[in-house]
Amino acid sequence: MMIGPPPERVTAAVESLRNAGIKRADLLVTFGSGQENPWAEESELTLPYADIPGWAAPGVEGHGGKLSLVRIGEDNVLVMVGRHHYYEARSYEAIAAPLKVARALGVRRALLTNSAGAVREDLRQGDFVLITDHILLHGPALPDLLREDPVKDTTPGYWSEGAVVIRQTAAEVGCTLDEGVLLCVTGPSYETRAEIEMARRMGAAVVAMSLAPEALIAWSLGIEVSGLSLVTNIAGAQGSADLHHDEVVAAAARMQPDLDRLLREAVPRMLPSMDRFRSDP
Length: 281
Known about the structure:
By secondary structure, the protein is of the alpha/beta class.
């Protein structure tokens, strides 16, 4: 079983983007619930997902559904505002499509972000968490499915150099950054207190319904991945019926100035054109 859309649909999307003016890209940045594009005013081009063959507008509130091209120095950055979740269609196709298109345009690195609930008791709303690993409790056995489309010399694991950049930048700009394991669940319901206690015992720092499937698919395509969660709620602090998605969206919006400050400094340092400076003696 192949993950994602058929090759001809990926080709159609790539051709459509090239005709629109996105000829190539070096880095992909994705944003989740309530998050916006930090480079919105500088974007050279912005397209609704619905205008791209094989893509569809996200069905979840707070996911804008827009793809932008941002030029930073010598490099092109693709910025995705909004994502599809596995629970929307019980399928990985809509999750995989943008990653396959990005890879076909030349992307080799990705920074994936999401809004998440704090599992660890020392985390607070407004914190950023650098993802060091993940636990996927989600749909069919995605890692097994991906083995049918392997890329040689690609080892699953979050990009260590990207993590260094995010740590250093957070310290410089004064953002509260922690790090830990992401537990990814199917959703769309929020977790009960008992489920959060299970997550703590499993070693999770945060819980969300996204990012881990994208990371796995990206790794299978040979893309290096950094993961960053915005803590928008304290998971299990209330009964799941008392937490509403619009509260998560509102919390992410309040964090947007800090997110802008962090990523506007960090992303340029993650671009391929900076590698030659890091490698100089």
